[in-house]
Design goal:
Bound molecules: 1-O-pyrophosphono-5-O-phosphono-alpha-D-ribofuranose, uracil
Order of helices and strands: EHHEEEHEEEEHEHEEEH
Number of strands: 12
Oligomer: single chain
Structural class: alpha/beta
Number of helices: 6
Radius of gyration: 18 Å
Shape: globular
Helix content: 25-40%
Largest sheet: 8 strands, mixed
Length: about 210
């Protein structure tokens, strides 16, 4: 069964509070999302296995631990997921990056795919799907389905703000995928926006609208 990890470190809560404020402009919004993504990445990678290797320090030989196991792919859901890539790449610089483009139909709120480009060895990698908003869960659930169609078996989802409805949908459709989020908000409104949320993440990141 999928585990929900709520990463509510004080630094993350503090930065997220500024992102939620409507006065925060795109430059600060982008920077805060970048910083939070790096902090969340620390927890998202916590269970990565390590292995012992022998090295020699300037003083003596010793045994140390390095990361073992599978390589990583980061997959942002366009557009807003792009804002979470660099923070993770600063922790895992050799990760490959795939892109899945989805937009929500304004009437039905259902995701529509318009782009997909993934590393050709993605099925052999631990995949971290990133999107700041988990609202109805349609976009994340569809992106994960697409990744499974490409053979991915080890997938985790990292979101900034989640609604209970979105968590429920992803867990029901993908019980093998752990969800990492900085906040679980109250509900969705009639337009399927998260309440209190932070508005439209893509528009706030890129200054559109
Ligand atoms: C937003 C957000 C998610 C999606 C979440 O993207 O970045 O991808 O909505 O909603 P859901 O959980 O109900 O599917 P949007 O469709 O606004 O596209 P954008 O990132 O290009 O602005
Ligand atoms: N997409 C967003 O950007 N924000 C929401 O609150 C819901 C979907």
């Amino acid at each position: 069964m999928s585990t929900l990890h709520i990463i509510d470190h004080p630094l993350i809560q503090h930065k997220l509070s500024y992102m939620r404020k409507k006065e925060t402009g795109p430059k600060d919004f982008r920077q805060l999302l970048d910083e939070i993504s790096m902090l969340m990445g620390y927890e998202v990678t916590r269970d990565f296995p390590t292995k012992e290797v022998e090295i020699e320090t300037p003083i003596c030989k010793t045994t140390v631990n390095i990361i073992a196991g599978k390589k990583v792919a980061i997959v942002p859901i366009l557009r807003a997921g792009l804002g979470m890539v660099d923070g993770l790449l600063s922790l895992v610089p050799v990760a490959k990056v795939g892109h899945i483009g989805l937009y929500r139909d304004p009437e039905t709120h259902k995701p529509v795919e318009y782009y997909c480009k993934l590393p050709n060895d993605i099925e052999d990698r631990v995949v971290i799907v990133v999107d700041p908003m988990l609202a109805t869960g349609g976009s994340s659930a569809d992106a994960i389905t697409k990744l499974k169609e490409h053979g991915c078996k080890n997938i985790r989802l990292m979101c900034l703000v989640s609604a209970p409805e979105g968590i429920k949908k992803v867990q029901a459709e993908h019980p093998d995928v752990d969800i990492y989020t900085a906040a679980v908000d109250e509900k969705l409104n009639e337009n399927a926006y998260i309440v209190p949320g932070l508005g439209d993440a893509g528009d706030r990141l890129y200054g559109t609208k």
